[in-house]
Amino acid sequence: MILLELFLTFFRIGLFTFGGGYAMLPLVQEAVVQKGWMTNEQIVDFIAVSESTPGPFAINISTYVGNETGGIIGGICATLGVVMPSFIIILIVAKCFDKFRKSKAVEGCMTGLKPAVIGMIGSAVVSIGTTVFFPNGVTAKVLTGVPFYISLAIFGAALFFTLKKKISPIIIIASSAVIGIAAGFALNL
Description:
By secondary structure, this protein is an all-alpha fold. The protein has eight helices and no strands.
């Protein structure tokens, strides 16, 4: 039963995700937490792993959630579920491309979807940011903890180097992981 539920849950997520993996984060978070498969903290960890491993984010996160929930077969079911809608839609679009290309309805649909995708990505940023920066809720105590400022510094540096210096995201992710590991060891000594 869990295998079918994984497939159907990620099929629905794949069906309603426009704009790539980050746009699917609110849907994944809602479904996975609501079903009790994972906590918000576990999802943040899985996002970090999904971002740090090769391959498309949507496939990585669905595979990890499925594997954690239903073992290897669960990972396969979740992955198939998330890619199947895109596969079917691309087949249909490829078959009917000439008819769709000049359609005002398709053009209007794409115009309407762009702001919605940005809104979903923004929602994911706020939700995940809250979990990362305020894991125990927003309190004054958070502002006195060293981990908060380390996370804030890593975030600020990553943002700066991505936007201003155009450094590769791979270098930023690897550097952030190294800094996080070093800080973790330094704080636990």
